[in-house]
Amino acid sequence: MGKDRRRKENVVPSPSVTSPLAPETPIIVWFRRDLRIADNPALSEAALRGRPVVPLYILEEDAPRPMGGAARWWLHHSLKALCRDLTQLGAKLILRRGRASDVLLHLCEETGARTVLWNRRYDRLETGKDCKITSALVARGIQVEAFNGSLLFEPRAVQNRMGQPFQVFMPFWRNCLSLPDPPRPRPRPVKLHPHAPIGSECLNDWSLLPGSPDWSTGIASAWTPGEDSAGARLADFLEDGLQCYGQRRNHPDLDATSRLSPHLTFGEISPRQVWYAARAAGSHPTDGFLRELGWREFCYHCLHHNPDLPRQPQRKEFLDFPWINDEASWQAFIRGRTGFPIVDAGMRALLETGWLHNRLRMIVASFLVKDLMIPWQKGEAWFWDTLVDADPANNAGGWQWVAGSGLESAPYFRIFNPVLQGKKFDPRGHYVRRWLPELSALPDSVIHHPWEASASVLDAAGIVLGRDYPHPIIDHDIARRRALAAYEQMKGGVLPA
Q1: pLDDT tens digits for 291-348?
Q2: Domains of the chain (ranges plus CATH)?
Q3: Got the DSSP string for 172-195?
Q4: Residue 74 annotated in active site
Q5: Is 355 a catalytic residue?
Q6: Catalytic residue among 358, 438, 451, 488
Q7: 3-class DSSP state for residue 73?
């Protein structure tokens, strides 16, 4: 069984290795965004071979895009959890910093390892770097094998009738569901054969955590990184949240989503584990929850085929869109001081907890790119720095969807009204009151548009607009007309009615 899996998933067997490796020759397992023990194909394969295992994490100084602050916080604690879990299996996580190829070559020389295993990455910038690393290792007679530990389906397996990648989600997902089911999750290794002691850098020396002042206290109170926490969160959701997910998932005042996104981003749980656990609990792939997993898959396939996804619009006409870079509006937006309660509540929740409900992500993104006409790339970069689940594919795919610049997008002329969105998805104002306590005394009838409250209502709530809470920084109706005019100018045509 192990030999069959190796034959199927081994992509780069070194032609330089002509004789069997000695049983004591160690195997290096390079962890990346797969910080878990269970269903980790590279680690499982190393354990099957019965040789000493050297688990390695590299803080890559040549990473195509450095992590943001919130993700660095998560990485620190996730590595602590992984180190503990590996120690229980008999192996020590080795931490090194530098250029990945240099670190790997040096560690192979230091340990005598002739095999390096890892799970694939799918960003073209990263896969291009992995190809160069592979070439450097193979040139030294080192065997390299890569596995799929991040996706349900390999990008090369999902193509339309013309042999091209899909550009629209639903045909993509239907095609995925017509394929054989993803491989079942691999079991957790029982034990790893340890290697002789190897020097490791100290995690605290990497300065992944914020200094003074410490802005991460809210994040720390909201999250527990690590594989155990990921598994517990999935189990709790499947037991208590799955059945009502479709009816409740758009309401940010309810704890109705899985909140698995940061655990998936760092690979503390695999999509295959989520898939099979949800299927066993009764979820169908065309239903809401597993379809969201399909959207993650789609975004990664898009990123694989379009490496500029986080930076450039997929619809090239948006290169000529007349964006506005207004610094005062930007500062009001990121600080939750726009005067639109549902927008401000979302942006303050993001700063406090490092996470934002998906409905709020759409609302605040629409407000930024359509009401304020600030480029979506600026919002994408802010999310990259402030989200604990700052995912290279989902983050960019979501912003391009809202901006209308992606191949699979909401039309640009679909512009969310923040007041109506607030009334529909936070009808009692619970979410707004949680994050905007200065508005907590307002009645439900005006909680989403306090500027329309009467003087007596504001006085009874102890609110002076402009002092306790800002006036709206823009008139939504005027902003909507301006955005539509800009869209028409870009298209050189007439907008649909």
Answers
A1: 999 999 999 999 999 999 999 999 999 999 999 999 999 999 999 999 999 999 999 9
A2: 2-149 (3.40.50.620), 151-185+227-305 (1.25.40.80), 316-490 (1.10.579.10)
A3: HHHHHHHSPPPPPPPPPPS--PPP
A4: no
A5: no
A6: 358
A7: helix
